[in-house]
């Protein structure tokens, strides 16, 4: 959770610039150079992982522990502290066991390509299991260009897509994901992961620069051409990574353009920043990415393994409420025993069996929820055209009488797949359902029609954000659906946050207006609901108008 808000020498380091990927709340593993122990500092934990840019390598900087962009006056730690966010760097490198809450620990792997970083992560998983950071910052990619791209040729073969595939590849047909990013998310599915661009490389200054032909009449032009080719390829790589991060569509996976903060004149050897102030040029980009997402809580039930059963997480925790609903449905002669995630029901039944689970989480003291989304990946295993979701507010409905074999239909309210999709689902169809918990379509006292189908559309839209104050959200998916995973993402603010700032990023802008837009014409969940700007108990266009007047950007509403 987010707290309190809301090895080598010169030769290897010459090959050590890798893309910056910021991974919030997951971590890379590396060689274990210090005792691995997680200190309880009651701060937001950050793992900086990657290559020598994470380490802060520079031949002229003779620090025992190199601050890089992480520390020092003007570094990331100071920027976050000025914003009120105290952090604890974690990792197995440069860890100070005497003062672990204020050290510059990290998990850098100098000189490593993307695949080498992943291989080291796999071969030594200890840091992954020891540290549970809220934020991870990673660099990976530049070493791929330095080691595996022949930039000395006049027209080198393009490699940007191959390098991007090692980072993240999404199959166009099956949507299956592979690569370092997917592996990290697999280890830490609730991790906030930020992926950044990599900076340009100065081939002319690079210590391992291309060897000029003896008869070259214009050496400067010769090198400039090769430098232009290399950085054009890096630009394509950056755009490919950004697009893949966007296409993945996860609330905890983000792209941050840190690479563009450095220019060709910033290096001491063509690759590494020339001084500490130049390393610090990267800090504001990291800061902006982090501060936009620290006031989110993510909880994942299950795993994103495309319906592959047999994992321990496929048997999720269930609250007393979930168990009572499952027990009640089990008394229906038309229902089979409840199923785990990624699996058919007991005895192999694919039909008429519920799947129940509980999202559990802890928000900081005084947190006020402003938005929440739920992503549910399911597959219709049989006649799922009438499948639905029973949740915390659902109860047995004496007004909804039905014949035998329909106990699950007696619950009200319910959320139907049909209303979430705008159409009936199809058997064997894989669905990525999205619920905006601020405004959920529900069925109330609704009976099935003669075709055993949900008639018409939703009866109302309910605000479910108030349910999250208890630290759990319960779901029972019924009754012909296999569930892969469920991801709950909660945005909140703390008491004392400026009125109208609804996502904790320090400004009032279009993102805050979008929070209101997504909740229009619903009830506030309490008199403390920060979205109720005018205090009338409803989220309406009047609240949006008041918020626009407070906007920090002149064109806020137009954006």
TrEMBL record:
* Protein name in the entry: GDSL-like Lipase/Acylhydrolase family protein
> Tell me, what is an example of a GO biological process annotation in this record?
polysaccharide catabolic process
Report the source organism. Nitrosomonas aestuarii
Alphabetically ordered keywords of this record = Hydrolase
Organism superkingdom: Bacteria
GO MF term (any one): phosphatidylcholine lysophospholipase activity
**One Pfam family of this protein, by short name?**
Lipase_GDSL
Has the keyword Hydrolase been applied to this entry? Answer: yes
């Amino acid at each position: 959770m987010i707290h309190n808000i809301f090895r080598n020498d010169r030769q290897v380091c010459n090959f050590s610039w890798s893309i910056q990927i910021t991974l919030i709340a997951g971590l890379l593993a590396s060689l274990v150079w210090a005792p691995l122990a997680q200190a309880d500092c009651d701060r937001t934990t950050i793992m900086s992982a990657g290559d020598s840019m994470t380490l802060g390598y520079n031949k002229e900087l003779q620090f025992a522990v190199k601050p890089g962009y992480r520390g020092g006056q003007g570094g990331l730690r100071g920027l976050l502290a000025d914003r009120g966010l105290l952090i604890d760097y974690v990792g197995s490198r440069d860890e100070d066991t005497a003062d672990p809450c204020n050290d510059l620990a990290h998990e850098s792997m100098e000189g490593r390509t993307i695949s080498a970083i992943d291989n080291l992560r796999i071969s030594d998983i200890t840091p992954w299991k020891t540290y549970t950071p809220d934020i991870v910052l990673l660099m990976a990619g530049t070493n791929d260009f330095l080691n595996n791209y022949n930039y000395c040729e006049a027209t080198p073969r393009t490699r940007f897509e191959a390098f991007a595939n090692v980072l993240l590849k999404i199959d166009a047909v099956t949507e299956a994901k592979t690569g370092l990013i997917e592996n990290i998310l697999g280890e830490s599915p609730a991790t906030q992961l930020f992926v950044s661009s990599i900076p340009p490389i100065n081939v002319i200054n690079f210590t391992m620069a291309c060897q000029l032909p003896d008869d070259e009449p214009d050496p400067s032009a010769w090198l400039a051409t090769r430098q232009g080719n290399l950085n054009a390829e890096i630009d394509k790589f950056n755009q490919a990574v950004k697009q893949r991060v966007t296409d993945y569509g996860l609330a905890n996976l983000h792209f941050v353009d840190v690479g563009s903060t450095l220019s060709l004149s910033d290096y001491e050897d063509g690759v590494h920043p020339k001084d500490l102030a130049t390393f610090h040029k990267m800090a504001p980009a990291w800061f902006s990415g982090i501060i936009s997402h620290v006031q989110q809580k993510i909880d994942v039930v299950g795993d994103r393994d495309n319906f592959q059963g047999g994992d321990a997480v496929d048997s999720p925790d269930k609250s007393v409420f979930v168990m009572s609903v499952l027990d009640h449905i089990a008394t229906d002669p038309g229902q089979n025993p409840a199923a785990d995630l990624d699996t058919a029901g007991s005895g192999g039944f694919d039909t008429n069996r519920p799947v129940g689970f509980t999202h559990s989480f802890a928000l900081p003291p005084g947190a006020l929820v402003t938005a929440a989304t739920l992503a549910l990946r399911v597959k219709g295993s049989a006649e799922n055209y009438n499948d639905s979701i029973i949740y915390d507010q659902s109860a047995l409905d004496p007004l909804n009488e039905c014949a035998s074999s329909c106990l699950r239909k007696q619950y009200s309210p319910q959320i139907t797949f049909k209303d979430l999709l705008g159409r009936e689902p199809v058997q064997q169809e894989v669905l990525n359902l999205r619920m905006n918990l601020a405004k959920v379509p529900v069925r109330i006292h609704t009976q099935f029609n003669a075709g055993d189908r949900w008639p018409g559309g939703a009866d109302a839209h309910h605000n479910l954000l108030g349910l999250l104050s208890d630290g759990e959200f319960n779901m029972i998916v019924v009754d012909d659906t296999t569930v892969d995973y469920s991801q709950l993402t909660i945005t909140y603010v703390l008491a004392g946050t400026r009125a109208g700032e609804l996502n904790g990023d320090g400004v009032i802008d279009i993102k805050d207006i979008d929070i209101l837009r997504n909740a229009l014409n619903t009830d506030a969940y309490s008199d403390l609901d920060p979205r109720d700007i005018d205090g009338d108990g409803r989220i309406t266009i009047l609240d949006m108008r008041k918020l626009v007047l407070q906007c920090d950007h002149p064109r806020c509403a137009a954006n």
